[in-house]
């Protein structure tokens, strides 16, 4: 029996070992490059990166992000959103004065008299008031408001007279008047007293609409019992269809 020793490595075996050793060296080199790349900063990576990858690397660079934010404006603390940079001053609106281009107009009232008609602006002195009421050239010197037959509405031709007395009373609150409603002789006594009261009240309401106070005015009716003209014709009847405005404190006593 012939014994043989262990055979040595062949050329084929040596070739296989050489290939494996080369593969291990290449793999080690790749791993070493990968580790070196992971430890470098984004700026160092961008130097060695290809042009297509450079933008991706810079997007992870906080310094590059600051450059972009600085161009758009400062970021807000709560949301991180960038706020626009103001480029124009803010103009504050002017305060509202209520009336454009003019001051408020004064109104008539107690302690604030405004000259708007005959007798306006005079002091509340009896002598001055009596003089104003006695001026026959003024509407205040006219005291009778006339009416159509069986009517109690104020005629257009008497509007100026009523307005003058209404404004005078509104400017002199201490002055009092008595309005006396009258009728012509036609009709019953009861009918004429009722119509006379309506005529007196019609003038009273008009004066109050012009600023007079109710406490300044007393309205009464005399019916046909206090005629201004006698007779039975239309001229006399027209004179008796009236309301008289009397100022008891300033008119002459009958």
Task: Give the key terms.
about 40% helix, 60s Ribosomal Protein L30, Chain: A, disordered N terminus, about 250 residues, alpha+beta, four-stranded mixed beta sheet
Report on this structure.
- There is one protein chain.
- With 254 residues, this protein is of the alpha+beta class.
- Among the domains are: 32-69, no CATH class; 126-246, OmpA-like domain (60s Ribosomal Protein L30, Chain: A, 2-Layer Sandwich).
- It has helices spanning 11-39, 42-48, 51-59, 62-72, 126-133, 159-171, 189-209, 234-240, and strands at residues 144-146, 177-182, 217-223, 242-246.
- A four-stranded mixed sheet has the order 1-4-2-3.
- Strand 2 (177-182), helix 7 and strand 3 form a beta-alpha-beta unit.
- Helix 2 (42-48) runs antiparallel to helix 3 and helix 6 (159-171) packs across helix 7 (189-209).
- The termini are far apart.
């Amino acid at each position: 029996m012939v014994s043989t020793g262990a055979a040595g490595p062949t050329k084929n075996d040596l070739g296989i070992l050489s290939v494996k050793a080369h593969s291990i060296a290449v793999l080690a080199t790749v791993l070493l490059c990968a580790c070196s790349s992971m430890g470098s900063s984004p700026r160092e990576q961008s130097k060695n990166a290809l042009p297509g990858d450079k933008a991706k690397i810079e997007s992870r660079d906080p310094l590059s992000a600051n450059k972009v934010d600085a161009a758009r404006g400062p970021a807000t603390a709560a949301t991180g959103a960038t706020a626009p940079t103001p480029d124009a001053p803010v103009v504050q609106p002017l305060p509202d004065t209520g009336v454009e281009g003019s001051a408020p107009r004064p109104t008539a009232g107690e302690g604030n008299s405004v000259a708007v008609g005959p007798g306006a602006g005079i002091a509340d002195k009896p002598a001055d008031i009596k003089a104003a009421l006695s001026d026959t050239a003024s509407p205040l010197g006219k005291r009778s408001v006339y009416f159509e037959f069986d009517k109690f509405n104020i005629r257009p031709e008497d509007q100026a007279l009523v307005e003058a007395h209404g404004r005078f009373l509104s400017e002199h609150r201490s002055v009092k008047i008595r309005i006396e409603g009258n009728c012509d002789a036609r009709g019953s006594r009861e009918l004429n007293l009722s119509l006379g009261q309506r005529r007196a009240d019609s003038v009273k309401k008009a004066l109050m609409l012009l600023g007079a106070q109710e406490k300044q005015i007393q309205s009464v009716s005399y019916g046909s019992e206090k005629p201004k003209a006698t007779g039975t014709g239309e001229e006399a009847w027209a004179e008796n269809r009236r309301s008289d405005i009397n100022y008891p404190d300033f008119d002459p006593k009958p």
